C-alpha cells in the first residue's frame, strides 16, 4: 500500500539548519575533540624518496617524556587500494614519495609527540627516481613498484604493467576506416593540466579509541564505510570490529573520499589504551594532499564534410603518484567525460593511471571531468577553426540528444543540451554584451558544454516516526558543506510523510547504526540516499496508514499525509495528527519505522567494447552549458572575468536557492583551477613545492563575481522526485570556458591550465605553444602496453 503524495511539497528554499552554529563558531568538528585525557599523535614522514629502508629505530623516541605508543608497518601488515591492493599504511621496505609515513607517535602533548618524532632514526639507501609521467613511461624507467605482479587484483579486467597502474579502454565502430577516408579533415590536439589542491579549511583529522574490544573512530571523512573497511583490512580485523562516526566536516571536495590517517589513530589507541587525536598540520596536508591529478591528453578527430564527427580517438595519462588510489577508478570516467558531449560515428580511447615517485593523487570535485572537458572543448574550437565552422553552430549540430549513443554504447534519453544552448543564448542576450568593459584590453568570449555522470551505488536509510509526530532519518550520509543532509534529504522525507523539513531530524553518520553507503561524492548523495529515504518512507507509510484507517474508519487508500496530519483525501480537517496515529501504532504494533535501500539499477552499454572499466554505463547524465566573457591585459597577461553565466541541468531543483549557491561556489573553485591554482612538483625530489595558504594561490574576494544562473528542469532522471546531483557539476566547464575565451581573446591556441599571467604572456608573445606529448603514442597500435 503506497499512498501517493504531492511531490510539489518538496520544493522550497529551505534554509540550512546548521548555518547559525557554523557562523557563530558553535559547531564542533573532529579537530575540536582533543579534550582532557586525549593523547596527541603525529606522523613520522620520510624526507626523501625513493629510497630503500635499511633501518627504523624508535627506541630513543619511545623513551622520551610523554610518549605512550608508537606504530610502524609491523602493526599494519595489510595492503589496500581500489582495483589493486598496492598501498601500505606505513612504508614497509621502500619509501616511494616524499612525506610517506614510516611511523606514528602518540604522546601526552603535541609538543612531546613532535619531539619524539624527531628522535626516530630512519636509515635509507637512495633509489633511482621517476618523478614525471614522461620519465615513468620511458624505456628503462625505474619501477615505482618492482613487485607489481604480486599485488592482489581486487577488480579484474584492466591492463597493468611496469609503471602503468591501470589501463581502461574502449573501442566502438570502425575507427581506422573513418580516419582513412579521403574526405575527412583530421584535427589533433594536445593538452596538459597541473595538480589542484582541495584546500578545505579543516584538515584530515581522526580521534580513535579502543572500547569493549572494538575500535571507534571519529573522523572528518566523506566515506565512513570505506574508513571502516580499509581500517579492518590493513589491521587484519573483521570489519564488524570497527565503528566509524562522523562529526561535522569542515569541507571535503574529494580530499576526504579516502582512508588515510584513520587506521593509524586506531592502532595508537589500541596500543596505548587511550583516546588518540591525529590531525594533519597544514604543511602535511599540502605534502600528502591527494590532489586533483595532473594529466596529459591527446585527442584526434576525423570531421566529415557536413561538419559531423566521423571518428574520434584519445589517450589520457593520469598521474596517480606513488599508489593507484582513486585514479585507478577514474580511468573509467574518461570514456564518460571525454566521450560524453558529442556524437561520433566511431570512438576509441585509452586512459592510463601512471605511477610516479610523487605524493598520491585523489578525488576532487567532478574528478577527471574538469580537465577532460577543458581538453574536449578546446579541441572542439580547434576543429571549428580548421573547418571554418561557427563554434555555436558546430555544437548545436553535434551535441548528444535523444536516442544518441554515448562513448561506451549507452543510449541517452531526452533532448537536453540543445535547448540548454538555446537558453544560454537567451540569457546572454538578456544580460547584455560586456565587450565595452574590456577597454583597451583583449576581449574574449566562449560558450562550452559539459557532461557529468552520477555513479549512484548502494545506499540505505531508516526513517523512525517519533511520538511527537516528527521523523528521524538514519543514514551513513555525511554533511560536508554541500547542504544535502541539512536541506535536500529533510525535504524529501518531509514531502513523503506530510511534514515540514524542520520536523525531520537527520542523524550524523554512524556505521553501527546505518547500513552501507558508498560515500558522499560524485553528486550521488541526493539521488542515492534520497531514493533510499524515499523507499524507507514508503515502507513506513505501509505500516502507518492501516492504523490510521482503523482510527478514522476510512480505507487506507483514501488517506493522505499532509501538514503533520493524516487526512481523508479531499476533506481537510477530517483526520487526526500523525502524533496520535503514532501513539496508537506503538500501542498495537510497537514503534513505527521504515527501511529502504537503493543501488545502481543499471543501464545497458554496448557489450564487449570496454575493458578495465568499473562502470561501463552510468544512469544519470547531468549536463551544463557555461558562457564566459573576459578581458586579457596584453602587457601583464592578467585575465579578468567580466561575466559568467551557467545553464545547469538539475532534473528538479528541490531547493533553488541552495542549487544556485552550489553553482556560485563551484564556478569560483573552477576559476581557481583555470587561472591560479597549481600544485607543482620539485623536478629533482618529487616533493610538493607549496606548503600552505601563503604559497598556494587561490581566488580571493576581489577575484569573484556574481554568476548568472538558469536552472534547467525536466530532463529525465531516476532520482527521487526527478532530482539530479547539483553540487558536482558546477566546476565541470569552468576551465574549458575560460581556456576557450582566452584563446578567443589572444587569437592563439591554449593547451595548458592554469592560465597564470606569465603563461598568458608567453602565449601572446609566441614563446609558448600547445604542449606536445611525445610519450603519448599517436598510433592506436602503439598504445598497446609494451
What key phrases describe this protein's structure?
disordered C terminus; single chain; Aldehyde Oxidoreductase, domain 4; 786 residues; 7-stranded mixed beta sheet; alpha+beta; 8-stranded mixed beta sheet
Which SSEs are present, and which pair or pack?
Blueprint: H1 19-24, E1 39-45, E2 51-57, H2 59-62, E3 67-71, E4 79-80, E5 84-85, E6 87-88, E7 94-95, E8 101-107, H3 110-118, E9 121-126, H4 133-137, E10 152-153, E11 159-161, E12 164-172, H5 175-180, E13 185-193, E14 205-211, E15 214-219, H6 224-235, E16 242-245, H7 262-272, E17 276-279, H8 282-287, E18 295-303, E19 309-321, H9 325-330, H10 333-337, E20 347-355, H11 369-387, H12 391-398, H13 417-431, E21 442-454, E22 459-465, E23 471-474, H14 484-497, E24 504-506, H15 525-552, E25 559-562, E26 565-568, E27 571-577, H16 578-588, E28 593-598, E29 610-611, E30 620-632, E31 639-651, H17 656-676, E32 708-713, H18 734-746, E33 752-753, H19 757-765
Parallel strand pairs: 1-17, 13-33, 15-16, 19-20, 23-24, 31-32
Antiparallel strand pairs: 1-8, 2-7, 2-9, 3-8, 4-6, 5-10, 11-12, 12-20, 12-29, 13-18, 14-15, 14-17, 18-19, 21-30, 22-23, 22-28, 25-26, 26-27, 30-31
Helix pairs in contact: 6-7, 11-18, 14-15, 15-16, 17-18
Domain Aldehyde oxidase/xanthine dehydrogenase a/b hammerhead: 24-128
InterPro entries: Ald_Oxase/Xan_DH_a/b, Ald_Oxase/Xan_DH_a/b_sf, Ald_Oxase/xanthine_DH-like, AldOxase/xan_DH_MoCoBD1, AldOxase/xan_DH_MoCoBD2, AldOxase/xan_DH_Mopterin-bd_sf
Protein name: Xanthine dehydrogenase family protein molybdopterin-binding subunit
Amino acid at each position: 500500500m503506497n499512498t501517493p503524495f504531492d511531490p510539489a511539497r518538496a520544493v522550497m528554499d529551505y534554509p540550512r539548519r546548521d548555518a547559525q552554529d557554523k557562523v557563530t563558531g558553535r559547531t564542533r568538528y573532529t579537530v575540536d575533540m582533543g579534550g582532557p585525557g586525549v593523547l596527541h599523535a603525529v606522523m613520522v614522514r620520510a624526507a626523501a624518496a625513493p629510497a630503500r629502508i635499511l633501518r627504523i629505530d624508535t627506541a630513543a623516541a619511545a623513551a622520551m617524556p610523554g610518549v605512550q605508543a608508537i606504530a610502524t608497518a609491523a602493526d599494519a601488515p595489510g595492503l589496500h587500494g581500489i582495483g589493486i591492493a598496492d598501498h601500505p599504511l606505513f612504508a614497509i621496505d621502500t619509501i616511494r614519495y616524499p612525506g610517506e609515513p614510516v611511523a606514528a607517535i602518540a604522546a601526552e602533548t603535541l609538543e612531546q609527540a613532535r619531539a619524539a618524532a624527531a628522535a626516530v632514526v630512519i636509515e635509507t639507501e637512495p633509489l633511482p627516481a621517476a618523478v614525471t609521467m614522461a620519465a615513468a613511461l620511458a624505456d628503462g624507467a625505474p619501477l615505482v613498484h618492482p613487485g607489481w605482479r604480486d599485488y592482489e587484483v581486487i577488480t579484474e579486467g584492466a591492463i597493468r604493467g611496469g609503471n602503468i597502474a591501470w589501463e581502461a579502454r574502449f573501442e566502438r565502430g570502425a575507427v581506422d576506416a573513418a580516419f582513412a577516408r579521403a574526405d575527412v579533415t583530421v584535427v589533433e590536439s594536445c593538452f596538459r593540466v597541473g595538480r589542484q589542491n582541495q584546500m578545505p579549511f579543516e584538515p584530515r583529522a581522526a580521534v580513535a579509541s579502543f572500547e569493549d574490544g572494538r575500535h571507534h573512530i571519529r573522523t572528518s571523512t566523506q566515506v565512513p564505510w570505506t574508513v571502516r573497511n580499509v581500517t579492518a583490512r590493513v589491521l587484519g580485523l573483521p570489519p564488524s570490529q570497527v565503528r566509524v562516526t562522523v562529526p561535522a566536516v569542515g569541507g571535503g571536495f574529494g580530499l576526504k573520499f579516502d582512508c588515510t590517517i584513520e587506521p593509524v589513530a586506531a592502532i595508537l589507541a589500541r596500543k596505548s589504551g587511550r583516546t588518540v587525536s591525529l590531525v594533519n598540520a597544514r604543511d602535511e596536508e599540502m605534502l600528502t594532499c591527494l590532489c586533483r591529478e595532473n594529466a596529459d591528453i591527446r585527442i584526434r578527430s576525423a570531421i566529415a564534410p557536413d561538419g559531423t564527427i566521423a571518428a574520434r580517438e584519445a589517450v589520457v595519462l593520469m598521474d596517480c603518484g606513488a599508489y593507484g588510489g582513486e585514479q585507478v577508478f577514474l580511468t573509467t570516467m574518461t570514456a564518460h567525460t571525454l566521450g560524453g558531449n558529442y556524437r561520433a560515428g566511431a570512438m576509441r580511447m585509452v586512459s592510463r593511471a601512471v605511477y610516479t615517485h610523487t605524493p598520491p593523487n585523489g578525488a576532487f570535485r567532478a574528478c577527471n571531468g574538469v580537465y577532460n572537458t577543458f581538453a574536449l572543448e578546446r579541441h572542439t574550437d580547434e576543429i571549428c577553426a580548421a573547418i571554418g565552422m561557427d563554434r555555436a553552430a558546430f555544437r548545436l549540430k553535434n551535441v548528444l540528444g535523444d536516442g544518441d549513443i554515448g562513448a561506451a554504447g549507452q543510449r541517452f534519453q531526452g533532448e537536453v543540451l540543445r535547448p540548454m544552448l538555446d537558453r544560454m543564448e537567451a540569457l546572454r542576450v538578456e544580460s547584455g554584451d560586456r565587450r565595452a568593459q574590456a577597454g583597451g584590453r583583449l576581449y574574449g568570449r566562449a560558450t562550452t558544454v559539459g557532461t557529468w555522470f552520477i555513479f549512484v551505488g548502494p545506499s540505505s536509510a531508516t526513517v523512525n516516526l517519533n511520538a511527537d509526530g516528527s521523523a528521524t532519518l538514519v543514514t551513513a550520509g555525511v554533511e560536508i558543506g554541500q547542504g544535502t543532509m541539512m536541506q535536500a534529504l529533510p525535504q524529501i522525507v518531509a514531502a513523503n510523510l506530510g511534514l515540514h523539513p524542520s520536523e525531520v531530524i537527520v542523524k550524523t553518520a554512524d556505521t553501527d547504526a546505518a547500513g552501507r553507503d558508498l560515500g558522499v561524492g560524485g553528486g550521488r548523495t541526493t539521488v542515492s540516499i534520497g531514493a533510499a529515504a524515499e523507499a524507507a518512507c514508503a515502507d513506513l507509510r505501509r505500516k502507518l496508514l492501516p492504523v490510521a484507517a482503523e482510527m478514522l474508519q476510512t480505507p487506507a487508500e483514501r488517506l493522505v499525509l499532509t501538514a503533520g496530519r493524516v487526512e481523508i483525501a479531499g476533506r481537510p480537517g477530517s483526520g487526526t495528527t500523525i502524533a496520535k496515529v503514532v501513539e496508537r501504532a506503538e500501542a498495537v504494533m510497537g514503534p513505527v519505522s521504515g527501511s529502504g535501500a537503493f543501488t545502481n539499477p543499471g543501464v545497458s552499454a554496448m557489450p564487449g567494447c570496454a575493458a578495465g572499466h568499473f562502470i561501463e554505463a552510468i544512469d544519470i547524465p547531468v549536463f551544463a552549458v557555461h558562457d564566459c566573457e573576459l578581458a586579457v591585459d596584453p602587457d601583464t597577461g592578467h585575465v579578468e572575468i567580466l561575466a559568467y553565466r551557467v545553464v545547469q541541468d538539475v532534473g528538479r531543483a528541490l531547493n533553488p536557492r541552495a542549487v544556485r549557491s552550489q553553482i556560485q561556489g563551484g564556478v569560483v573553485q573552477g576559476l581557481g583551477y583555470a587561472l591560479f591554482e597549481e600544485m607543482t612538483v620539485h623536478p629533482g625530489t618529487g616533493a610538493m613545492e607549496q606548503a600552505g595558504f601563503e604559497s598556494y594561490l587561490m581566488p580571493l574576494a576581489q577575484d569573484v563575481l556574481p554568476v548568472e544562473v538558469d536552472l534547467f528542469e525536466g530532463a529525465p532522471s531516476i532520482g527521487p522526485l526527478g532530482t539530479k546531483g547539483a553540487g558536482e557539476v558546477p566546476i565541470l566547464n569552468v576551465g574549458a570556458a575560460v581556456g576557450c575565451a582566452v584563446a578567443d581573446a589572444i587569437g592563439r591556441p591554449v593547451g595548458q591550465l592554469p592560465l597564470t599571467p606569465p603563461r598568458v604572456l608567453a602565449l601572446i608573445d609566441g614563446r609558448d605553444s600547445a604542449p606536445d606529448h611525445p610519450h603519448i603514442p599517436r598510433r592506436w597500435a602503439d598504445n598497446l602496453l609494451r
